[in-house]
Amino acid sequence: MEFETISVVGLGYIGLPTAAAFAARRKKVIGVDVNQHAVDTINRGEIHIVEPELDMLVQAAVAQGNLQAFTRPQPADAFLIAVPTPFTDGHKPDLSYIEAASRAIAPVLKKGDLVVLESTSPVGATEQMAAWMAEMRPDLSFPQNAGEASDIRVAHCPERVLPGHVIRELVENDRVIGGMTRRCGEVARELYQIFVRGECILTTARTAEMCKLTENASRDVGIAFANELSLICDRLDINVWELIRLANRHPRVNILQPGPGVGGHCIAVDPWFIVDSAPEEARLIRTARIVNDSKPHWVVERVERAAKRFKEPVIACLGLAFKADIDDLRESPALEIATELASNYPGSVLAVEPNIRELPRHLADKVELCTLNDALLRADVIVVLVDHVPFKNIDPIRLQAKVVIDTRGMLARG
Ligand code: SAJ
């Protein structure tokens, strides 16, 4: 199978690096996104998100004519769908972006094309995506009614890259490829082998869907254990960071790190897809979500207790992103904590977030975005919420007269 033109639908944190990776292998890549601003930015050779090394890759791809972005789908030999899969209020997966993307590409599909769903999805989503396309294109056959002989190949290949290390992990990580049929999987493997140096392992679409959810749920359960330990240690007056360091000296123990909660669009979301599919069985996975989701409120209570010492406390939140050295505020516990503090202490909350230039609209008139130096000069209470590199070199002398609540154990780890 020759893939001359590859289309990536959804040019966000996963789609754009993937598009750039194909373009770097001299494939003609058509990027598609409904966001006009993203499309215009990419076509200028620039990027609209923060991810190390991505800017250079996109600039080169656009300059060499290998990557072009559009707001509407164009014909291609392979389509990768990398759109968001959020959940609704009741923690139910929302597949509307996948539905919109698959219905949008359906009119440009031709016999022999491959469609790969990359978005993290509940079990059954790939079959559902194929059904949406089949509904739009009765003139073409799809795997669910034509099996190995289908006109269109459909597969699921979940992305597994770690934000902040996307460019390296995209190439090096193994990929799990779930074809709706064996042949669909084989064709999808040929596509990924264009730039993936890790192993591409074939399975069914349903197993691939569950595999991705399992990876993130496993991490969520591990972090919940660490977060629960941090609460227990606080009650028992034990330094949780030292405790974990010591326990991890055991050859078969590897405890993760507590924090202000779990954020990002992946780990805080994906386990709910498992809970939704098997609510009676997924007891531990649900509890882990509840433990991690309750941690930001616990942090707010700690800050409130500390602030009582001051008549008019000034509180500085160090970091708003969901983890270190990125600009992503999605599902960020740090942002949640800052928001709650801002409504409890109007006019007295500062935020230091070196990776963004302006605050999200809901915080703009409630919180003051300032420099680290400013925060260290003005605040009575310092709440470390993200372990961004610039925070690591804070001179302990500057913290002496302040109350420090360090949710990342960054200043206390020693
Ligand atoms: N966190 C802790 N303690 C830890 C590790 C993480 O509190 O010991 C917190 C982080 O601060 C952050 C959240 O968990 O708020 C998630 O961060 P992360 O670095 O663990 O993961 P993500 O969300 O950036 O990326 C994850 C990765 N999945 C796994 O490691 C199993 C990545 O490989 C996936 O591709 C990504 O989700 C995704 O897109 O699903």
TrEMBL record:
<dbReference type="GO" id="GO:0009103">
    <property type="term" value="P:lipopolysaccharide biosynthetic process"/>
</dbReference>
<dbReference type="GO" id="GO:0051287">
    <property type="term" value="F:NAD binding"/>
</dbReference>
<keyword id="KW-0520">NAD</keyword>
<dbReference type="Pfam" id="PF03721">
    <property type="entry name" value="UDPG_MGDP_dh_N"/>
</dbReference>
<dbReference type="InterPro" id="IPR008927">
    <property type="entry name" value="6-PGluconate_DH-like_C_sf"/>
</dbReference>
<dbReference type="InterPro" id="IPR036291">
    <property type="entry name" value="NAD(P)-bd_dom_sf"/>
</dbReference>
<dbReference type="Pfam" id="PF03720">
    <property type="entry name" value="UDPG_MGDP_dh_C"/>
</dbReference>
<feature type="domain" description="UDP-glucose/GDP-mannose dehydrogenase C-terminal">
    <location>
        <begin position="316"/>
        <end position="413"/>
    </location>
</feature>
<dbReference type="InterPro" id="IPR036220">
    <property type="entry name" value="UDP-Glc/GDP-Man_DH_C_sf"/>
</dbReference>
<dbReference type="InterPro" id="IPR001732">
    <property type="entry name" value="UDP-Glc/GDP-Man_DH_N"/>
</dbReference>
<keyword id="KW-0560">Oxidoreductase</keyword>
<protein>
    <recommendedName>
        <fullName>NDP-N-acetyl-D-galactosaminuronic acid dehydrogenase</fullName>
    </recommendedName>
</protein>
<dbReference type="Pfam" id="PF00984">
    <property type="entry name" value="UDPG_MGDP_dh"/>
</dbReference>
<dbReference type="GO" id="GO:0016628">
    <property type="term" value="F:oxidoreductase activity, acting on the CH-CH group of donors, NAD or NADP as acceptor"/>
</dbReference>
<dbReference type="GO" id="GO:0016616">
    <property type="term" value="F:oxidoreductase activity, acting on the CH-OH group of donors, NAD or NADP as acceptor"/>
</dbReference>
<dbReference type="InterPro" id="IPR017476">
    <property type="entry name" value="UDP-Glc/GDP-Man"/>
</dbReference>
<dbReference type="InterPro" id="IPR014026">
    <property type="entry name" value="UDP-Glc/GDP-Man_DH_dimer"/>
</dbReference>
<keyword id="KW-0448">Lipopolysaccharide biosynthesis</keyword>
<comment type="similarity">
    <text>Belongs to the UDP-glucose/GDP-mannose dehydrogenase family.</text>
</comment>
<dbReference type="InterPro" id="IPR028359">
    <property type="entry name" value="UDP_ManNAc/GlcNAc_DH"/>
</dbReference>
<dbReference type="InterPro" id="IPR014027">
    <property type="entry name" value="UDP-Glc/GDP-Man_DH_C"/>
</dbReference>
